[in-house]
């Protein structure tokens, strides 16, 4: 297996007041993948990104980007990183093109208008290139932040809540941008509150809670392992309670008694649906329709975090 | 060394200066001209010469120093405070730029701005008073050293300030009184002996005195002491900045 492009070992970030934001993080990120970092508010997502990018100093542990230590070889490590922060932090009176040029220069890259023009075009900012940032909408400002982060051609791009406060259309647009970057070989680490976003675009998902990584797994495998499937049975007549004969099943009533929800494990040998339908018939309950649905990553995430909190 | 980054920061700061050219340049020139009218023409005409120099000409070094000190501090403090305030500092902190390169960019720009204003005020003063400069090279050296030194102090204030009020506090409550009481408009030899002694504890006295010496060849304190004072202030400011970046105090989490 190729060496990871980002390698974090036993990372601790503790503050003077005693609060430990990151508590022994170990994480490896492979070149070219999209990793979604999920976690509740205050879990340590932004602190982790800030520490990798050099905005915060690690208390202990090691972070290597492209093989370079982010403290000792900070120049080489940071040259590989692009960061899109959570807040829309932009100098309001700068023009779009100027602020992107500024970012490229900060990373020590010589001026390359052809490349920057292409970045602006890719992000649908070309028409706004001479506009002052103060005149742009929130979505456009988000794009400018991405353009700035891409201005020095980074290998690793950190997107901290890239679609926060962005409408659905723009969010999907942003996903396309992320997919295009991945196609070019850029490694992307994104934090998000929109779990459907992680489910839709991430190759792997890392869940962080209370400063610790709870799991890192491929999105599809995680869904298979922890995802629960449900069969929704529409009834011809509503039920007031689940009949005694069906108490052995994982059933619940929904839709004012007009629906029976049956939960089953996709990894089990048998789903039990056929047997349930037979028992329904035997109990004199008439079925109108049957559909199945997969539990979302959101439910998986809530389950994980709650299990941790309960422990 | 990432010289491109230093240059980019420098240019960015200079651009902000020219974007607010009225506020940056015209305002100090007008206020200095008013000083010449009031102190030089109206009051100065009724005053005796000081150490062989007309009062109008005598106050020129002090006036330049007054503006240069306040401009160095305010330009540098605002330059670093503003990105902290709006959050764009993240970009500087996450870039492959060393602390020294950041300081050279911000402090260099603030010092150049203050130097430009100082030289423009000097040029303006030729319109109001007959003036000759005894040691032009030393005059320029004093001016440059003062600009750099106080731009560093401004940079420190900008990093330490938690709000705009604090940003104004030191220039208003400390620097301006020290400059006014530091012999900008008089020779400290004109003061009673007790106040002469007290004045020697005012660091600005050494700057104004040295700068005035470069104009007229006369000084309140020996020129060597003035040079030593500037070197000491510069070392103090540099040491403080070094410590701030080493510990990340108020700049890096």
Task: Summarize the SSE layout with pairings.
The complex is a heterodimer of chains A (311) and B (253).
Chain A: E1 6-14, E2 20-29, E3 34-38, H1 45-53, E4 60-65, E5 68-69, H2 74-79, E6 81-84, H3 96-106, H4 113-122, H5 138-150, E7 156-160, H6 168-183, E8 187-191, H7 195-201, E9 204-209, E10 212-218, H8 219-226, E11 228-235, E12 251-254, E13 259-265, H9 273-282, E14 287-294, H10 297-310
Parallel strand pairs in A: 3-8, 3-9, 6-7, 7-8
Antiparallel strand pairs in A: 1-2, 1-4, 4-5, 9-10, 11-13, 11-14, 12-13
Helix pairs in contact in A: 3-5
Chain B: H1 3-19, H2 21-43, H3 55-86, H4 89-93, H5 99-128, H6 136-160, H7 164-180, H8 193-199, H9 203-216, H10 223-247
Helix pairs in contact in B: 1-5, 2-3, 2-5, 3-5, 3-6, 3-7, 3-9, 5-6, 6-9, 6-10, 9-10
Protein model, in words:
Chain A has 2 domains: 6-224, 3-Layer(aba) Sandwich (Rossmann fold); 228-294, YebC, transcriptional regulation domain (Alpha-Beta Plaits, 2-Layer Sandwich), CATH 3.30.70.980. Helix content of chain A is 33%, strand content 28%. Chain A contains 10 helices and 14 strands. Chain A has helices at residues 45-53, 74-79, 96-106, 113-122, 138-150, 168-183, 195-201, 219-226, 273-282, 297-310; strands at residues 6-14, 20-29, 34-38, 60-65, 68-69, 81-84, 156-160, 187-191, 204-209, 212-218, 228-235, 251-254, 259-265, 287-294. In chain A, β9 (204-209) and β10 form a beta hairpin. Chain A is elongated. The mean pLDDT of chain A is 88. Chain B has 253 residues and is an all-alpha fold. Chain B has one domain (3-46, 53-247). In chain B, 77% of the residues lie in helices and 0% in strands. In chain B, α1 (3-19) packs parallel to α5, α6 (136-160) runs antiparallel to α9 (203-216) and α9 (203-216) packs across α10 (223-247). The mean pLDDT of chain B is 90. The interface between A and B is medium-sized, with 32 and 24 residues.
